[in-house]
C-alpha cells in the first residue's frame, strides 16, 4: 500500500494536487476524489469499481483522509477533497499506539472544546484515567503543552495536524462496530517467533545440503512437455467444468434446481453421457466413479479377472481404514487373494509376491502397496483398454443420457436467454471487451442482450 | 552448541557456502530444461470471455471470523470453522445449518469433511485434531463422541482427510512423501509467506498464494515455477487458492476482501469479485466444480457460481 501511496504523491507523475480553500483557510496538497480515481484507473488499467475499492481500503488503513466528513471512509469519485497522511503516522512506522499517547490525545481533544469527545471516546477516556492514573499529571501537562504550541501555528497547519491525528486514531482505536484493519491472524505472532527459534546451526545446513543433493539428482522433464500437458488436460476437461462450460440441465446454484445432482448421483439408473465419457479419460477416472467401477467389475467378470479389482479395493480399504482393524484386514486379504490356493488368487509376479509375503510378517498400512501397484498397472495396461473397446462400454455410451436444458427461472427484471443455462464463460464477441464496458451478446433469434 | 556435529575442516561458514553453491547449481539444472514459457505455449488457446459469477448463497451464522471450510462429497454440504470456536455443518444449497459443535478453543483454524460424509475433523490453537462423527440424533452430544486424533507441537493450521501432501512453510513450498516423512521437492521463489497451496487437478503441479500478493504455479515434473499470477493493482496478500475442475481457472481470495479469477494458462486476470466485507480467509471449489465457496473475516460464507 505504501508503494502505491508514495507513487501517488510523486510531484511529476503523481496525482494532481492543489491548494484548496476550505471555508476561509487555504489547505495545501489536496487532491480530489475524482483525480485520485482517474490516476489510479490509468496507472493500473483497471475498472473504476476496483479503484474505488482500493481507495476505500487506503482510507480505512489511514493513508488518506477526507477533509470534510472524517468518518466517511469511502472513496468518492467526485470533488470531495482528500489529503495524504504523513508517513510519521503510517500504520507500519508507529506501532503499537500506546495508551499514554491515546490518553494525551483524548485529553487534548476534551480541553480544546468541551464535549468534543464522542461516546466511545468518553468511555475510553474514563477507563484511561483509571489505568494511567499514576501518570495522569504527565498526560495533562503534555496535552496542555501541545495545545499551547499549536496556538502559535497557522490555522491551516493546525487543521492539518488535527486531521492527521484524528485519522491515526481512527485506525488505531476504531469506534465500536467498525472492524479494526490492524487485526492479524494468530500466525503473525507465532511465525516470527518460530523463525527466531530456528537457529541455523550445522544440523540445519546439513539437512539443506542433503535435500538439495537429492533434488539435483532428480529426473526432470522438459518444460515444453509439461506445459503442453496442461493445455491438453484443460481442453479435455473443459466440457466437464461447469464453471467453464455450464452444465446440463442447469447449474443448481444458479437455477435452484438440483436436477443436475440427482442425475449424477453415485447410483443412478442411467448415467449421463459426460459421465460415461469421462471414464475414458484415464483409468483413475474410471475407478474414481463407483458406477464406473461397478461396470468395470462386470466386464472383468466376463474375462474371469474380477479378483484383480477386488484385490485392489481391499488394499484401498487397508490403506484408509481404521488402525484397529489393520491386522484383521491384512489377514483377510492374504487368505482371499495371496495365499497359495486362495479362492480369488491374484496373479502377482514372483518377486513382488516374495517381498509382499515378507512384509506381511510385520503388517502396516502400506504393506500391500507393491502388490496393489502391480495389479493396478496390470488392469490399466491390459483390461482397461479392452474395456473401452468392449460392447459393454460402447453400449453404455450409446444409451447414456443427455439431459435437456431447462429453462432458467424467470425473474421479472432478468432477461430470459435462449440457452437457459448460460455458460459463465461467455464467448468473446467481436465487440471490444474493454474494461468496465458491458458485453453485447448476440441472441440466437437475432436480437441482442446486454450483460 | 555451535561446534556440535562439525567435522574436521568444517565450519559453519563453509557449510553455509556449500549449501549456497548447491542451491545455485540446482537453479542452473532446473533452468536447463526450461525451453518455453507457459504463456507462449498458451498463445494458441482460445481466450476466455467475460465472466459473470455472482454470490448465489450467503451463509450467515458464525459469530466471528470464518477461518476455514471444506466441502462434503455430496457437493452441497459444507463444514466451516470460526474464531468463535464454533464448527458448523451447513447444507449450503438450502442454507440450513445441520450441526454445530463448540470447540474448547477459539481460533478453530482448520476443518475438513470426511470422504464418507459421516464425520468432520477440526483443530486450532488447542494443538489437537479432533474428529466428530456427525449425528442427527438430538439426544446425542456430539462433543462427547469426539476423538482426538493427533497432537501437534504448535497450532493446527490445516487438516484434511486425504493425504495433505504439501505445506507452505514461510516462503518455501515443500512436497512431502507421507510415508517416509521426507521432503521430496522444495521451491523458494515467493517473496513472502505462503498462505495456501493447492494441487492442479491432474496432480502434476500446484499453485500457491502468498503475502507478496502473487500466486504462482509450480510444475512437479519440470521441477520449477512456471507461472506468476500478479497485477500491479493487487497489493494485498492472497490467503487461499483453488482450481476449477478443468484447471483452467484459478480462484484466489485476498486480504483486500476480493476474489480474483485467473486464467491459469494465459496468466491474465479474468475477473474480480467483490462482495465480502473483510478479508477472504478460505476458498474451495465444490467437488463437482459447479461452484466455489469463500469464507471471510466478515463472519459469512458465500457460494459463487
Automatic annotation (TrEMBL), chain A:
Residues 11-86 form the DEP domain. GO terms for cellular component: cytoplasm; neuron projection; plasma membrane. CDD domains: DEP_RGS7-like (cd04450), GGL (cd00068). InterPro entries: DEP_dom, G-protein_gamma-like_dom, GGL_sf, RGS, RGS6/7/9/11, RGS6/7/9/11_DHEX_sf, RGS_DHEX, RGS_sf. It comes from the Eukaryota. One of its GO terms (biological process) is G protein-coupled receptor signaling pathway. It holds the Pfam family G-gamma. Transmembrane segments: none annotated. The keyword Oxidoreductase does not apply. SUPFAM superfamilies: Regulator of G-protein signaling, RGS, Transducin (heterotrimeric G protein), gamma chain, Winged helix' DNA-binding domain. Keywords: Signal transduction inhibitor. GO terms for molecular function: GTPase activator activity. Residues 282-397 form the RGS domain. This is Regulator of G-protein signaling 11 isoform X1. It comes from Erinaceus europaeus (Western European hedgehog).
Automatic annotation (TrEMBL), chain B:
Keywords: Coiled coil, Repeat, Transducer, WD repeat. The keyword Repeat applies. Pfam families: WD40_Gbeta. WD repeats lie at residues 59-91, 187-228, 240-272, 273-305. Residues 12-39 form a coiled coil. The keyword Magnesium does not apply. InterPro entries: G-protein_beta_1-5, WD40/YVTN_repeat-like_dom_sf, WD40_G-protein_beta-like, WD40_PAC1, WD40_repeat_dom_sf, WD40_rpt. It comes from the Eukaryota. Belongs to the WD repeat G protein beta family. This is Guanine nucleotide-binding protein subunit beta-5 isoform X2. The gene is GNB5.
Amino acid at each position: 500500500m505504501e508503494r502505491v501511496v508514495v507513487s501517488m504523491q510523486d510531484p511529476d507523475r503523481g496525482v494532481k494536487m492543489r491548494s484548496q480553500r476550505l471555508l476561509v483557510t487555504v489547505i495545501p496538497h489536496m487532491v480530489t476524489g475524482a483525480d485520485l480515481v482517474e490516476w489510479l484507473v490509468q496507472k493500473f488499467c483497471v475498472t473504476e469499481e476496483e479503484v474505488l475499492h482500493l481507495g476505500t481500503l487506503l482510507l480505512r488503513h489511514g493513508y488518506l483522509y477526507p477533509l470534510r466528513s472524517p468518518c466517511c471512509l469511502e472513496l468518492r469519485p467526485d470533488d470531495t477533497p482528500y489529503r495524504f497522511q504523513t508517513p510519521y503516522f503510517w500504520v507500519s512506522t508507529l506501532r503499537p499506539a500506546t495508551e499514554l499517547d491515546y490518553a494525551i490525545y483524548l485529553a487534548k481533544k476534551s480541553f480544546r472544546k468541551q464535549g468534543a469527545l464522542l461516546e466511545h471516546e468518553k468511555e475510553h477516556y474514563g477507563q484511561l484515567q483509571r489505568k494511567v492514573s499514576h501518570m495522569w499529571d504527565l498526560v495533562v501537562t503534555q496535552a496542555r503543552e501541545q495545545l499551547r504550541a499549536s496556538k502559535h501555528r497557522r490555522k491551516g497547519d493546525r487543521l492539518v495536524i488535527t486531521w492527521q491525528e484524528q485519522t491515526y486514531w481512527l485506525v488505531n482505536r476504531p469506534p465500536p462496530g467498525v472492524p479494526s484493519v490492524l487485526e492479524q491472524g494468530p500466525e503473525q505472532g507465532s511465525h516470527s517467533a518460530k523463525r527466531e527459534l530456528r537457529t541455523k546451526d550445522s544440523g540445519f545446513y546439513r539437512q539443506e545440503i542433503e535435500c538439495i543433493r537429492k533434488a539435483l539428482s532428480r529426473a526432470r522433464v522438459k518444460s515444453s512437455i509439461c506445459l503442453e500437458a496442461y493445455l491438453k488436460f484443460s481442453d479435455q476437461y473443459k466440457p466437464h467444468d461447469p464453471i467453464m462450460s455450464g452444465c446440463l440441465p442447469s447449474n443448481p446454484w444458479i437455477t435452484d434446481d438440483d436436477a443436475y445432482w440427482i442425475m449424477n448421483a453415485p447410483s443412478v439408473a442411467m448415467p449421463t453421457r459426460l459421465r460415461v465419457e469421462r471414464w475414458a479419460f484415464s483409468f483413475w477416472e474410471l475407478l474414481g466413479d463407483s458406477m464406473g467401477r461397478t461396470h468395470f467389475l462386470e466386464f472383468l467378470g466376463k474375462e474371469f479377472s474380477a479378483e484383480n479389482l477386488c484385490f485392489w479395493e481391499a488394499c484401498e480399504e487397508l490403506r484408509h481404514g481404521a488402525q484397529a482393524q489393520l491386522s484383521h484386514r491384512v489377514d483377510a486379504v492374504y487368505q482371499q487373494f495371496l495365499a497359495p490356493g486362495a479362492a480369488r488368487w491374484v496373479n502377482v509376479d514372483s518377486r513382488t509376491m516374495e517381498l509382499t509375503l515378507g512384509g506381511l510378517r510385520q503388517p502396516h498400512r502400506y504393506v500391500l502397496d507393491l502388490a496393489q501397484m502391480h495389479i493396478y498397472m496390470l488392469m490399466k495396461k491390459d483390461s482397461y483398454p479392452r474395456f473401452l473397446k468392449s460392447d459393454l462400454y460402447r453400449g453404455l455410451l450409446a444409451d447414456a443420457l443427455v439431459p435437456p436444458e431447462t429453462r432458467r427461472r424467470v425473474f421479472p427484471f432478468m432477461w430470459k436467454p435462449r440457452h437457459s443455462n448460460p455458460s459463465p464463460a461467455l464467448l468473446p464477441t467481436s465487440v471490444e471487451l474493454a474494461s468496465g464496458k458491458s458485453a453485447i451478446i448476440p441472441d440466437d433469434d437475432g436480437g441482442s442482450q446486454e450483460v | 552448541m555451535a561446534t556440535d556435529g562439525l567435522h574436521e575442516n568444517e565450519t559453519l561458514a563453509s557449510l553455509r557456502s556449500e549449501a549456497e553453491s548447491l542451491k545455485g547449481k540446482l537453479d542452473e539444472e532446473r533452468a536447463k530444461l526450461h525451453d518455453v514459457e507457459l504463456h507462449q505455449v498458451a498463445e494458441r488457446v482460445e481466450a476466455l470471455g467475460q465472466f459473470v459469477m455472482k454470490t448465489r448463497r450467503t451463509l450467515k451464522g458464525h459469530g466471528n471470523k470464518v477461518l476455514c471450510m471444506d466441502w462434503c462429497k455430496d457437493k452441497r454440504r459444507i463444514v466451516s470453522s470460526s474464531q468463535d470456536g464454533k464448527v458448523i455443518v451447513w447444507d449450503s444449497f438450502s442454507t440450513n445449518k445441520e450441526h454445530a459443535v463448540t470447540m474448547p478453543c477459539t481460533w478453530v483454524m482448520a476443518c475438513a469433511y470426511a470422504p464418507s460424509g459421516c464425520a468432520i475433523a477440526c483443530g486450532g490453537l488447542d494443538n489437537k485434531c479432533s474428529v466428530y462423527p456427525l449425528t442427527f440424533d438430538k439426544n446425542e452430544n456430539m462433543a462427547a463422541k469426539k476423538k482426538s486424533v493427533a497432537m501437534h507441537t504448535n497450532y493446527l493450521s490445516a487438516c484434511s482427510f486425504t493425504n495433505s501432501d504439501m505445506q507452505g512453510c514461510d516462503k518455501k513450498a515443500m512436497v512431502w512423501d507421507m510415508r517416509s516423512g521426507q521432503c521430496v521437492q522444495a521451491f523458494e521463489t515467493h517473496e513472502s509467506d505462503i498462505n495456501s497451496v493447492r494441487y492442479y487437478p491432474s496432480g502434476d503441479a500446484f499453485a500457491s498464494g502468498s503475502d507478496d500478493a502473487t500466486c504462482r504455479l509450480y510444475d512437479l515434473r519440470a521441477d520449477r515455477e512456471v507461472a506468476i499470477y500478479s497485477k500491479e493493482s493487487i497489493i494485498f496478500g492472497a490467503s487461499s487458492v483453488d482450481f476449477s475442475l478443468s484447471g483452467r481457472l484459478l480462484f484466489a481470495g485476498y486480504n483486500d476482501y476480493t476474489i480474483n479469477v485467473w486464467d491459469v494458462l494465459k496468466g491474465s486476470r479474468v475477473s474480480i469479485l467483490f462482495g465480502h466485507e473483510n478479508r477472504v480467509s478460505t476458498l474451495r471449489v465444490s467437488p463437482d466444480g459447479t461452484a466455489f465457496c469463500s469464507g471471510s473475516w466478515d463472519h459469512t460464507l458465500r457460494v459463487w457460481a
